[in-house]
């Protein structure tokens, strides 16, 4: 009998939104997932931590609009695990806090599927914390109570007399639409109308916003501020601690938008943080490797044919070597090759793979690379140019004037506009002070994501990594207020730093 051994399901809490607020164990589970089933409100960078080969399935819900009904989700988890897969079910906050994680676990347990729950940091504690509100505090709250404010999903509404009698902090999730019902219910049940209330929306994310008031006026204040869900409502004297504990919203460092592919955002984000900036991650492009195409296979099989291997981006190096080894390549085949890299980061990446660049131009632009190389090439040379499918086209004719050039596409750059709404809010709310463009394709992706509405850029400064990017910006009507003199991420950082000192 050919019986499939079941896989396993990990019910993982993703935390409330800030990428760093996931457990180490949760991240390790994502990194070994074969199937990733995820909800709305999950930090996008977590999804990119799954292996590229993992099947990624979005089952999120938006208010009443269920993307996939719960019984279908249960069954999906079951089917994938029964087929032998390692499944990660990634849920916002903690899976067992209003997350239906229990139902999913029971469904799997009843069918003999091994599962494990990896708790997450729940928004009902982390959300208030990021707004400067401790859920308990000596002298003002020795307990806290968490309720759902969405009564459609519950058999009973809230028992306001019982709630009003509690001494501790009251916390409501999913209650944004029912805020007036909650505040009035509490007042009628005897809670003083002057009780402090805070509503925290998009907690722990870069667009977090908090509004404070009292049971009597919070509804009006929330309306005036234009808050949107998801939001948490906190009722109690602990709200008053915010004056001293509001570490997150009082960040003074200027926000810098990071538009690159989500998998590449973290090194740049780290550099920005190190230089005192606040990275705001909103990818508008995605790098899609093209895999082992026949052209690439041919170049790898016949690698000895070439005399120069030329790289125009760090991505190109990573993807080339990945495919080289996957196709059975051996580094000894490259012993006679010379290597060229467009700049420092590409050369460093090359060195990680065991090769020192023989040539790096002074200026990190493709025309300089091509010009410098042509001075070294003779008719007997043969150049392999593995790079982006949408790369600059001057290079090939310049090099081909000297010798044979094989231009081999490794990856495509695809525009991604999923963060469109978030992007506009971040820019117009003053969250972002700088928008650095690190390639012409991020300019295109950004322009599409904002729907061509350049008026939102009135209060931000746009920066270009180099002349090619600056030219693309100008073509679309975006003014490069700053241009890096060294055309690298370090150069971008330097020009931003210099600007903050003016
Ligand atoms: N399991 C989740 C809660 C799921 S219910 C947890 O432990 O956090 C969904 C509700 O959680 C939303 O309606 C909202 O009230 C709250 N919520 C989740 N993430 C939030 C965030 N980043 N900011 C504000 N509220 C959030």
Task: Describe the fold and architecture.
It is an enzyme of class 2 (transferase). This is uroporphyrinogen-III C-methyltransferase. It contains 19 helices and 22 strands. The strands form six sheets. Strands 3-2-6-1-7 form a five-stranded parallel β-sheet, sandwiched between helices. Helix 15 links the parallel strand 18 (382-388) and strand 19 (404-415). It is globular and about 90 Å long. Bound molecules: S-adenosyl-L-homocysteine. Residues 16-17, 41, 91-94, 97-99, 122-124, 127, 173-174, 200-205, 229-232 line the site of S-adenosyl-L-homocysteine (SAH).
Write a compact overview of the structure shown:
This protein has 502 residues and is α/β, with parallel strands linked by helices. The chain contains 19 helices and 22 strands. The strands form six sheets. Strands 3-2-6-1-7 form a five-stranded parallel sheet, with helices on both faces. Strands 8-9-12-10-11 form a five-stranded mixed sheet, with helices on both faces.
Q: Tags for this entry?
A:
porphyrin biosynthesis; uroporphyrin-III C-methyltransferase activity; globular; 502 residues; binds S-adenosyl-L-homocysteine; five-stranded mixed beta sheet; alpha/beta; five-stranded parallel beta sheet
Using only C-alpha atoms, the radius of gyration works out to 27 Å
Largest sheet: 5 strands, parallel
- What is the strand arrangement across the widest sheet? 3-2-6-1-7
What ligands can be seen in this structure?
Answer: S-adenosyl-L-homocysteine
Q: What is the rounded distance between the termini?
A: 75 Å
Helicity range: 25-40%
Low-confidence stretches: none
> Quick one: overall form?
globular
* Number of E-type strands: 22
Mean pLDDT: 91
Given helix and strand content, the structural type is alpha/beta
Q: Count of helices? A: 19
Oligomeric status of the shown chains?
single chain
How much of the sequence lies in strands comes to 15-25%
């Amino acid at each position: 009998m050919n019986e499939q051994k079941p896989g396993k399901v990990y019910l993982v809490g993703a935390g409330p939104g800030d990428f760093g607020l996931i457990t180490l164990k949760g991240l390790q589970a994502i990194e070994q997932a074969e199937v990733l089933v995820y909800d709305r409100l999950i930090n996008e960078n977590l999804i990119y931590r799954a292996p590229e080969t993992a099947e990624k399935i979005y089952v999120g819900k938006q208010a009443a609009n269920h993307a996939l009904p719960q019984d279908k989700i249960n069954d999906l988890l079951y089917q994938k695990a029964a087929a032998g897969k390692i499944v990660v079910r990634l849920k916002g906050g903690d899976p067992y806090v209003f997350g239906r994680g229990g139902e999913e676990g029971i469904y799997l347990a009843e069918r003999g599927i091994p599962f494990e729950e990896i708790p997450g940091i729940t928004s009902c504690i982390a959300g208030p914390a990021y707004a400067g509100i401790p859920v308990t505090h000596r002298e003002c709250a020795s307990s806290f109570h968490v309720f759902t404010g969405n009564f459609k999903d519950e058999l009973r509404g809230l028992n306001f007399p019982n709630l009003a009698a509690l001494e501790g902090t009251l916390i409501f999730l999913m209650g944004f639409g029912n805020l007036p019902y909650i505040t009035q219910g509490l007042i009628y049940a005897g809670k003083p109308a002057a009780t402090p209330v805070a509503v925290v929306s998009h907690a722990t994310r870069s667009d977090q916003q908090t509004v404070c008031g009292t049971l009597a006026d919070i509804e009006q204040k929330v309306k005036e501020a234009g808050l949107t869900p998801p939001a948490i409502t906190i009722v109690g004297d602990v709200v008053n601690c915010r004056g001293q504990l509001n570490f997150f919203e009082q960040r003074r460092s200027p926000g810098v938008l990071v538009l690159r592919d989500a998998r590449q955002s973290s090194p740049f984000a780290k550099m920005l943080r190190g230089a005192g900036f606040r990275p705001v991650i909103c990818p508008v492009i995605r790098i899609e490797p093209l895999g082992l195409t026949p052209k690439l296979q041919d170049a790898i099989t016949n690698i000895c044919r070439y005399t120069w291997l030329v790289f125009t981006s760090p991505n190109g190096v990573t993807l080339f070597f990945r495919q080289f080894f996957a196709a059975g390549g051996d580094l000894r085949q490259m012993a006679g090759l010379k290597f060229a890299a467009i700049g420092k980061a590409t050369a460093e990446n090359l060195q990680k793979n065991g090769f020192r660049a023989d040539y790096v131009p002074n200026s990190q632009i493709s025309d300089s690379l091509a010009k410098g190389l042509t001075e070294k090439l003779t008719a007997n040379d043969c150049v392999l140019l593995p790079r982006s499918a949408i790369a600059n086209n001057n290079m090939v004719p310049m090099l081909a004037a000297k010798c044979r050039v094989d231009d081999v596409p490794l990856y495509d750059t695809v525009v991604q506009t999923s963060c469109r709404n978030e992007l506009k809010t971040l820019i117009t709310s003053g969250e972002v002070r700088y928008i650095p463009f690190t390639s012409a394709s991020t300019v295109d992706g950004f322009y599409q994501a904002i729907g061509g509405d350049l008026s939102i850029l009135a209060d931000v400064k746009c920066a270009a990594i180099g002349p090619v990017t600056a030219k693309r910006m100008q073509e679309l009507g975006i003014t490069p207020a700053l241009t890096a003199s060294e055309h690298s991420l370090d150069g971008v950082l330097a020009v931003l730093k210099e600007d903050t000192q003016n």
